[in-house]
């Protein structure tokens, strides 16, 4: 790691050399050059056709598509700064949670979950940087099930069925996936790169074979059927992170005088003409000074599932009781933040093996890995591992009430655990107590014991959370109560998953590596017999680990739907010239991680907006 730091310093110091700049471009590290670009300084009363708030996955996509029209002036406002070499290095994904590019939210203390976290507060990281959460996530590319989108459409969201959204997923995608060159489910010429991870541990090969031996067939989880096991598909380009910013904005930023990007700039509210209920522009703060921007056509909030609802409420759009309680006049009563769904996981089980050198430890990154990755541009070193995630398995639970082709659970295979960074990042990023790390994972680290973890995730939880404001200061956090595991059945689904994960590890391919369950009891669960159902139930409520797929805080639905905040055209109900375009509009948890959907929503919104104004 020290070497990495030295190399980075060397790189940055020599940026002035034109030959090196050319080399960086060729290596796909062009983002580093952005450090030379001074941020745009806002001009008061500047006016634009469209103001997009938030340069995250959806916001970058939308701003890039709208600014393709040279007649339209587009402002893209972002609270965070620019990506650096750490963001581009996939194995460092976990470390990013400890940097200023994380908003660093926590939940309110949970009663029934996150007992392994300090004060029972689950950490809820979000990206605060050009690229948003796509610049600090784990880069897993996963769209969802046909039935997810068909269910959105059945709720009155016309235009959002699977057949109608698939073209937008494809429009964003540029796939380099072995064996899927001719698949109708993949495009090869969109802006966002989707690749196989070219570094693979021997553990993942054994896992994929064992899953097959247990009856899970090989599949492309973004293709015809999700069910089965797949090596992970990642948003990387030549083994480096490919964020929304790198994919959509960085390549065009200098070429489009009509696109103004404002990093380090915080939107504090939408300016609204109360008589006509129409958005006039936004108020923003840059270096402690307040500015106003005007929007001729529309203001679009793409600030993510926590900040878009916050900005609506700060602007007087939200639940009447909440707005009154904090002394904000109500412009439009809407159920903003009233619903919050997420994908809660069990961190584990973890399994130890007789292999050596296969688990990701920082000490296992060699000098030759570093030189090979940074200087030769080799995408097959450990540095391209997306935080150790190597394979996904989609499966049914025996208690499922859903159709057979609609998975209930996912296993995320990780060639590591909290020990993968020796307790320096993931543990803190997730707010785990020291006791958990010291008991379960420090011994693995000290012994350099090879191991892997199967995170078990439930796709369709019944527990529902919410988000609200406790004051009207735009610089404080909204209160977030995900209310995890309030519904007992959610715990039972994860228990089903844990049992199946253990069964897979009993198959010959993994037994050949001496695979066995890490059998140290989770602190707080010692009273239960190790491995019993009650033990795992306790473990689920202790080792609760969200994969950060929060949705529905600005839920999409027709005007007749009392839970809806935006229409199927993503317009805020009852308002004019105001839309929300990000994952907060997703009406129910999808059978997927949520990044791909954010790009799809950005692409579709661009078409909806063009349809209205051209
Ligand atoms: C640690 C982590 C790992 C994840 N891993 C994966 C994964 O592997 N695969 C996957 O599919 N999904 C993953 N996700 C989820 C996924 O990345 C997000 O759901 C998705 O990127 C959200 O996109 P978005 O456009 O809705 O919002 P974001 O990308 O969060 O964008 C919102 C942007 O708005 C900015 N902003 C907010 N408020 C303001 C304001 N007031 N003024 C100016 N700017 C503002 C933010 O800084 C941010 O840049 C992960 C999430 C996290 C946190
Ligand atoms: C692939 O992406 C390009 C660029 O976005 C788009 O023009 C094309 O229509 C897409 N192809 C398919 C098959 O969707
Ligand atoms: C794995 O190691 C353990 C402990 O040394 C040993 O008992 C076991 O036989 C080994 N298993 C395999 C398959 O090598």
Automatic annotation (TrEMBL):
A molecular function (GO) term: oxidoreductase activity, acting on CH-OH group of donors
Keywords recorded for this protein, A-Z: FAD, Flavoprotein, Oxidoreductase, Signal
Record's signal peptide: 1-16
Pfam families with a match to the protein in the record: GMC_oxred_C (PF05199), GMC_oxred_N (PF00732)
SUPFAM superfamilies, alphabetized: FAD-linked reductases, C-terminal domain (SSF54373), FAD/NAD(P)-binding domain (SSF51905)
Active-site residue numbers: 549, 593
Top-level lineage group: Eukaryota
InterPro entries, sorted: FAD/NAD-bd_sf, GMC_OxRdtase, GMC_OxRdtase_N, GMC_OxRtase_C
Cofactor(s) recorded in Swiss-Prot or TrEMBL: FAD
Residue stretches making up the Glucose-methanol-choline oxidoreductase N-terminal domain: 127-150, 304-318
Positions that bind FAD: 133
Family statement: Belongs to the GMC oxidoreductase family.
PANTHER family per the UniProt record, alphabetical: GLUCOSE-METHANOL-CHOLINE GMC OXIDOREDUCTASE, RE36204P-RELATED
The protein's name: Glucose-methanol-choline oxidoreductase N-terminal domain-containing protein
Source species of the chain: Drosophila mojavensis
Lineage: Eukaryota, Metazoa, Ecdysozoa, Arthropoda, Hexapoda
């Amino acid at each position: 790691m020290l070497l990495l730091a030295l190399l980075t310093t060397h790189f940055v110091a020599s940026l002035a050399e034109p030959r090196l700049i050319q080399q960086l471009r060729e290596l796909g590290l062009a983002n580093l050059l952005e450090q030379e670009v001074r941020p745009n300084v806002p001009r008061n009363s500047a006016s634009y056709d469209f103001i997009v708030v938030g340069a995250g996955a959806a916001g970058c996509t939308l701003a890039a598509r709208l600014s393709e029209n040279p007649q339209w002036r587009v402002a893209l406002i972002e609270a965070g700064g620019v990506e650096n070499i750490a963001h581009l290095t996939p194995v460092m994904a976990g470390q990013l949670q400890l940097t200023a590019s994380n908003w660093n939210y926590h939940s309110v203390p949970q009663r029934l979950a996150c007992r392994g976290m300090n004060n029972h507060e689950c950490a809820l990281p979000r990206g605060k940087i050009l690229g948003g959460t796509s610049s600090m996530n784990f880069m897993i590319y996963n769209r969802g099930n046909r039935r997810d989108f068909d269910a959105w459409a059945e709720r009155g969201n016309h235009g959002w069925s699977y057949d109608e959204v698939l073209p937008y997923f494809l429009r964003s995608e540029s796939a380099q996936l072995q064996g899927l060159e001719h698949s109708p489910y993949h495009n090869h010429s969109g802006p966002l790169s989707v690749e196989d991870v070219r570094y693979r541990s021997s553990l993942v090969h054994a896992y994929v074979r064992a899953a097959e031996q247990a009856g899970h067939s090989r599949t492309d989880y973004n293709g015809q059927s999700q069910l089965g096991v797949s090596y992970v598909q990642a948003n990387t380009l030549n083994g480096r992170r490919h964020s929304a910013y790198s994919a959509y904005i960085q390549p065009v930023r200098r070429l489009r005088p009509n696109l103004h990007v404002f990093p380090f700039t915080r939107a504090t509210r939408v300016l609204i003409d109360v008589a006509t209920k129409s958005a006039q522009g936004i108020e923003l703060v840059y270096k402690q000074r307040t500015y106003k921007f005007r929007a001729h056509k529309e203001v679009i909030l793409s600030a993510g599932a926590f900040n878009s609802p916050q900005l609506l409420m700060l602007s007087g759009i939200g639940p009447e009781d909440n707005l009154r309680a904090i002394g904000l006049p109500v412009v439009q009563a809407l159920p903003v933040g009233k619903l919050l769904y997420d994908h809660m996981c069990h961190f584990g089980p973890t399994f130890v093996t007789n292999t050596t050198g296969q688990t990701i430890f920082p000490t296992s990154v060699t000098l030759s890995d570093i030189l090979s990755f940074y200087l030769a541009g080799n995408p097959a070193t450990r540095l391209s591992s997306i935080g150790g995630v190597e394979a996904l398995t989609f499966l049914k639970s025996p208690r499922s009430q859903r159709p057979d082709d609609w998975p209930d659970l996912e296993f995320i295979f990780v060639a590591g655990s909290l020990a993968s960074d020796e307790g320096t990042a993931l543990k803190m990023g997730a707010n785990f107590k020291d006791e958990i790390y010291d008991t379960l994972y420090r011994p693995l680290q000290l012994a350099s014991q090879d191991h892997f973890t199967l995170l078990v995730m439930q796709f369709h939880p019944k527990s529902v959370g919410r988000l609200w404001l406790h004051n009207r200061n735009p610089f404080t956090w909204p209160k977030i109560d995900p209310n995890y595991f309030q519904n007992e059945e959610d715990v039972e689904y994860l228990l089903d998953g844990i049992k199946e994960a253990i069964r897979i590890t009993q198959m010959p391919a993994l037994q050949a590596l001496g695979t066995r369950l890490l059998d140290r009891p989770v602190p707080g669960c010692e009273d239960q017999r190790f491995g019993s159902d009650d033990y795992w139930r306790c473990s689920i409520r202790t080792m609760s680990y969200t994969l950060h797929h929060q949705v529905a805080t600005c839920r999409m639905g027709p005007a007749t739907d009392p839970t809806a905040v935006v229409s199927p055209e993503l317009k805020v109900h009852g308002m004019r010239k105001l839309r929300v375009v990000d994952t907060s509009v997703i009406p129910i948890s999808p059978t997927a991680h949520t990044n791909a959907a954010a790009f799809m929503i950005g692409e579709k919104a661009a078409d909806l907006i063009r349809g209205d104004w051209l």
